Amino acid sequence: MSDDGLSRRQYLSTVGGTAVTVSLAGCFGGGGGDGSTEITAGTAPGFPPFEMKQDGELVGFDIDLLEAVIDETDYTLAGWEEYEFKSLIPALTNENIDVVAAGMTINDERDQTIDFTDPYYSSNQAIVVREDGDFAPSSLSDLAGRPIGAQKGTTGETTVQDELISPGNLDESNYNSYGNYVLAVEDLQNGNIDAVVIDEPVAQTFAAQRPVTIAFTYETGENFGFGVRDGDDEFTQALNDGLSTVRDGSTYQDLTNKWFGQQ
C-alpha cells in the first residue's frame, strides 16, 4: 500500500456532514445514456484502504468494488458524494444518495434504519498505539485510565462505549471522538491520545504509512455491506447479484490484491 497512501492534507478538505463532491442524480435520478437508472453513491474518505483521497481523487477498495458491482447491473453510477461517516445514513434516508459504500458494519442498530446488501468484507477491531511509545496494551482492560480515540458513529466507537465506558473501565472524559480516523491517528502521533480503536485492515494501512503500530486485535467478527434504503428491494437484489458476479469472477480477488496485498 506504499504507493496508495493517504495525504493527510488531501482529506482535510472534507468538512462536517456536507457533501464535498456534488452529484445531481440522488434518489434514483434520470436515465443514463443507455436508458439505465442513475444512482448516486455516498462514502466517507479517511478510511484507507477502503476510501480515501489521493491527489484530490476519491480512491479505495470500496470505490472500485461498488463501481465494478454496478457495472454488472442495469443501473448507472452518476457520481459520488462525500460525508463524515456519521452523516451517511441520514443522507441515505433523506434520499440525497442511493447507496453507502464506506466500510460500514452490518449490525442490528443500523439495520433498524436501513437495509444492507450481502456482506463483502469481514473485519475485527485493532488497537493502534505510537510505534516509539512506551504504552503496549495487550487487552482492552489495559486501556483503563488512558485517553482513547475512535471515529464517530463507527464500531470502533461502539467498542469503546460498550466494552470500556459502560462497564466503568474508562471515564467518558478519557474518550475522544473524531470526524475521521485521519484526525484520530494524527492526535495519536502528536501524543494527545494513547490509542485508537479502528477496523483491522484500516489499522494495517495506517501502520504501513505512519509511525504507529497495532498493539493487539479485539475480535468482533464484523461484516461490511453496502447500505441501501429500507424497502429498495429491487435495487438491493441487483447489487447482490452484481456482487455475486464480481466475486465469482477474478475482479474481487484482483481488487483485494490491489488494496490489501496478496491474500
UniProtKB/TrEMBL annotation:
CDD domains: PBP2_Arg_Lys_His (cd13624)
GO CC terms: membrane
Presence of the UniProt keyword Signal in the record: yes
Superkingdom of origin: Archaea
Gene3D superfamilies: Periplasmic binding protein-like II
Any GO MF annotation of the entry: ligand-gated monoatomic ion channel activity
Entry keyword RNA-binding: no
SUPFAM superfamilies: Periplasmic binding protein-like II (SSF53850)
Every Ionotropic glutamate receptor C-terminal domain range: 38-262
Pfam family, one: SBP_bac_3
Domain Solute-binding protein family 3/N-terminal: 38-263
Name of the featured protein: Amino acid ABC transporter amino acid-binding protein
Species in which this protein is naturally found: Haloarcula japonica (strain ATCC 49778 / DSM 6131 / JCM 7785 / NBRC 101032 / NCIMB 13157 / TR-1)
Classification lineage: Archaea, Methanobacteriati, Methanobacteriota, Stenosarchaea group, Halobacteria
